[in-house]
Amino acid sequence: GAGVSQTPSNKVTEKGKYVELRCDPISGHTALYWYRQSLGQGPEFLIYFQGTGAADDSGLPNDRFFAVRPEGSVSTLKIQRTERGDSAVYLCASSLGPSDSAEAFFGQGTRLTVV
Amino acid sequence: TQLLEQSPQFLSIQEGENLTVYCNSSSVFSSLQWYRQEPGEGPVLLVTVVTGGEVKKLKRLTFQFGDARKDSSLHITAAQPGDTGLYLCAGAHAGNNRKLIWGLGTSLAVNP
Predict the structure, then answer these.
(1) Which residues of A touch B101 (CB under 8 A)?
(2) Contacting residues for B107 by C-beta, under 8 A, at least 6 apart
(3) What is the CA radius of gyration of chain B?
(4) Which is nearest to B103 in space by CA: B15, B37, B54?
(5) Selection from A93, A104, A78, A108 nearest residue A7 by Cα
(6) What does the pLDDT average to over A62-87?
(7) Predicted local confidence at residue B39, as pLDDT
(8) Cα distance between residue B104 and residue A43, in whole Å
(9) What is the mean pLDDT of residues B40-50?
């Protein structure tokens, strides 16, 4: 596709359930980022991948959150034992390479609601 | 702790007016970016500033990075309804440019 694609666009789940959020980056982009944006807030950094490896996962809030990118393209953000406080828009972004000047392009986000 | 303070948080103006949005911090950033976000969409990069005192223009938008690289401003001249949206600033620290620190955003409404 032409841009970063995130699926699903909306996800409603019950407290305690497990969810997976998917991100398809722009083809050829080696860097991939996950952010979380709560209502009325700016995005909050979660994790950054360079290729298949997590180069910086310092933003993951706790061990219920985990992300993978096994083939260096598609990434999945996994949340175990969801809590109501996990409700937010989860944004994925990708950029061409590790250069600090490479522009990051964002997807539309997945709106997660935990009820 | 909010490392980047944006002001104002909300702004409603009439078409044709000028406005300035501020982004302030006590931290020094190696670069600072401005984004615009529409409802239901991800942020879209407008500009990156990296040099203290730098001024960049994008049509009616003028961006300035403070001399000490702790603050930035976005000035819009003759605002139009199409400028309506959420404007976000995001800073990066030296040695960790991939982990952006974001402000809360300024929600701008330009009324016809």
Answers:
(1) 45
(2) B9, B10, B11, B85, B86
(3) 13
(4) B37
(5) A108
(6) 97
(7) 87
(8) 8
(9) 92
pLDDT tens column, B46-65? 999 999 999 999 999 999 99
Q: Which of B41, B89, B99, B101 to mutate to test the interface with A (most CBs of A within 10 A)?
A: B99
> What does the pLDDT read at residue B99?
80
Instruction: Select the residue of B40, B43, B98 nearest A43 (Cβ to Cβ).
Output: B43
Q: How far apart are CA B47 and CA B16, in angstroms?
A: 23
Q: Sort out which chain A residues have CB atoms less than 8 A from B104's CB and list them.
A: 40-42
CA distance B103 to chain A (A): 6
Give pLDDT tens digits for B13-31: 999 999 999 999 999 998 9
Can you give the pLDDT at residue A103? Answer: 82
Both tokens of residue A27?
A: 């083809």
User: A18, A87 in Cβ contact below 8 A?
Assistant: no
